[in-house]
Amino acid sequence: MSQAKGKKLINTVERCVDDSLEGFVAVNPGARLLQGHRVVVRSDIEEYKASGKVAVISGGGSGHEPAHPGYVGRGMLSAAVCGAVFASPPPNSILAGIRAVGKGNKGGVLLVVKNYTGDRINFGLAAERGKSEGIKVDMVVIGEDCALTSHDKTAGRRGLGGTIFLHKLAGALAEEGRPLEEIVRICTEATQNMGTIGIALSPCSLPGQGPTFQLGEDEMELGLGVHGEAGVKRMKLLTAKETVEAMIAHMTNKNSSTHLDINKGDKVAVLVNNLGGTSVLELTLMAGEVIRSIENKGVLVQRAFCGSFMTSLEMAGVIVTVMHLNDVRAKCLDAATSAPGWSPPFLAPGMTNRETPERMPADDADLSDMIVTSGEGLTVDADTGKLLYSILKAICETLISQESSLNQLDSQTGDGDCGSTLKAGAEGILKYLGTETSPGLPVTHPQNLLLSLACLVERWMGGSSGAMYSLFVTAAAAVVAHDVSATGWCSAFQKGMQAISKYGGAEPGDRTMLDSMNAAYNTLVANLSSSSPIDAFEAAVKAAEQAAADTANMTARAGRASYVSKDLQTQPDAGAVAVSVWLKAIYLTLKKS
User: Fold this and answer.
1) Contact predicate 185/176, CB 8 Å
2) 544 in a structural domain
3) Which residues, listed in sequence order, are joined to residue 139 by a DSSP beta bridge?
4) 83 assigned binding-site residue
5) Strand (E) or helix (H) holding 138
6) Residue 391 and residue 389: Cα distance in Å, rounded?
7) Do residues 158 and 235 share a domain?
8) Which residue of 319, 327, 484, 493 could cross-link 198, Cys pair, CB 3.0 to 4.6 Å?
9) Measured between alpha carbons, how far is 396 from 420 in angstroms, rounded to an integer?
10) Do both 410 and 457 map to the same domain?
11) What is the pTM of this model?
């Protein structure tokens, strides 16, 4: 399949829905497919019908998984009827579902239908045919979209994330044994007390077709539907906080005929739904912003749900649904269900209402304790302290300036964040460095200085780079505690390399930072006896730069690059280049002094 049509892991376009449903029931043996139809039914449906409880059916186009088959189970749907991708299911399949769960069931059948013309017509037709066969059938239409600014007589508000809330309410009420008429009333009231707004960053593509719409790299669309229907406006890409504020502002805009009223003191449930292509990192980040935005209005978010509930294939974006809560709705949301698509939040035993989280105190050192002052090692004079201060400042500023180039090198064989990681560590050090006349780090006490740097890079740089550099300076600190001569610093450099090799598993020749370090160390040792320290250091820097360049022709045998094909390793290793960068910064500072 061509890139333009969107790559999909399918066998054929024609069979993709059927194959998906067969896979679903293979994974979930509590569900079965009706022969000849795209209808998923609870496998215990005969026992359920015998109980006389209302059966709940929903459905719609495929491509929104886990909706709708994912909500078949005890406490939610009795059956789900699936159409082709983004297409309403045919009336004969809906009728087959009604017969399967309603024939001989005194409780009757409730159809939960989204407010799309095709769904209303097809489900309505099947409902009338079911009634003509003596099956008790009723229908609730959900249309809670807040994107529209006026009502349309034929289409109107779309059914979006609120459908999932309705599945939960109807299923829980049915499981309680409530009569059909009461369930219809409660669900109808719920539809009038909820609203949804969506935002998209990229389109989806239907199997065998291209993208459903186009968005610029710096654009996002507010208020779109789950089928890629146009939203209310296109906007320039904003931060997550700004995006949420725009969404909530539109949802609650009293000048819009489809707005949702939420006022100070109200209690609500919130659902933050992944449209399919949003990372979990972004999704939970957005969920936090949504809760904060709503609670800043004095509204209490008593229930919060976050996950992939109703997707739109691989569309990047989210939809946010807000529903006013009363005791009945809250109880229904809390009720147990075996439906695999429902993702309740993690609650501690006995918890129901969502509580504003408090941070648990960590059993570690306060950030102010990162500056080590307890070492008993040698000290240096004030001028040397100023030199060490200048060296540190130069290293940090140079690494910050090289963020983009190091990221670019790292993107070939890593995850493209080497420069950003080193920049974060450098910025962390600068937070504590202070000024030359009032340094925040113990620059006249080399051992304490290096141990402080170990804490700072571990905290601010993080990841494997933070750990490696923390190991490096921690091991080096033991040497400068008793020798701060040029040879002492050289030995400290060697001890740092040995620690990296011991715990990281890499050796010189493995295409890592150790290649630059090793070349610099060997050159420094070879030249210190015959040259001035500054000349020896200059030669060491040149050796490090050459070693870093030579890594372009080496095979990686350690680190993330070792997992990457040799054919892709055509540029120097980013970690090795970074070493040559900060070594040169040291040299230039020494030369200037």
Assistant:
1) no
2) yes
3) 111
4) no
5) strand 137-142
6) 5
7) yes
8) 319
9) 12
10) yes
11) 0.76
Range of the domain at 501: 367-592
Same domain, 406 and 307: no
The type of residue at 473 is V
Q: Which of 227, 250, 324, 445 is catalytic?
A: 227
Number of domains the chain is built from: 2
Contact 33, 21 (CB under 8 A): yes
Quickly tell me which residue has 């450098």 as its tokens.
426
Bridge partners of 140, per DSSP, are 112
CA-nearest of 67, 341, 314 to 200 is 314
Judge whether 515 is annotated as a binding position. Answer: no
Q: Does any domain span residue 283?
A: yes
**Is 213 inside any structural domain?**
no
Are residue 173 and residue 266 in the same domain, yes or no? yes
Instruction: Respond yes or no: is residue 445 known to be catalytic.
Output: no
Q: What is the DSSP letter of 357?
A: -
119 is in an annotated binding site: yes
Q: What is the pLDDT along the chain (593 residues), one digit of tens a residue?
A: 334 457 899 999 999 999 999 999 999 999 999 999 999 999 999 999 999 999 999 999 999 999 999 999 999 999 999 999 999 999 999 999 999 999 999 999 999 999 998 999 999 999 999 999 999 999 999 999 998 765 544 457 889 999 999 999 999 999 999 999 999 999 999 999 999 999 999 999 899 888 878 888 999 999 887 877 777 889 999 999 999 999 999 999 998 889 999 999 999 999 999 999 999 999 999 999 999 999 999 999 999 999 999 999 999 999 999 999 999 999 999 999 999 999 999 888 888 777 766 677 765 545 556 788 887 889 999 999 999 999 999 999 999 999 999 999 988 766 788 999 999 999 999 999 999 999 999 999 999 999 999 999 988 887 788 899 999 999 999 999 999 999 999 999 999 999 999 998 899 999 999 999 999 999 999 998 888 999 999 999 999 999 999 999 887 665 545 444 455 556 899 999 999 999 999 999 999 98
Tokens (6 digits) for 435: 């000024």
Which amino acid is located at 450 in the chain? L
- Asked whether residue 78 is domain-assigned, the answer is yes
Same domain (yes/no): 225, 373: no
What's 284's DSSP letter? H
Assign residue 277 the CATH number of its domain. 3.40.50.10440
Identify whether residues 275 and 138 lie together within a single domain: yes
63 is in an annotated binding site: yes
243 burial (CB, 10 Å; 0-12 / 13-18 / 19+) is buried
DSSP string, 24-71: HHHH-TTEEEPTTSSEEEETTHHHHHHTTPPEEEEEEEESSTTTTGGG
Same domain, 293 and 374: no
Clarify whether residues 375 and 327 are in a common domain: no
Phi-psi region of 416 (alpha: psi -120 to 50; beta: other; left: phi over 0): left
Final residue belonging to a domain, choices 311, 334, 357: 334
Domain boundary among 279, 313, 334: 334
Q: Please, are residues 415 and 559 in contact by the beta-carbon 8 Å criterion?
A: no
CATH number assigned to the domain comprising residue 418: 1.25.40.340
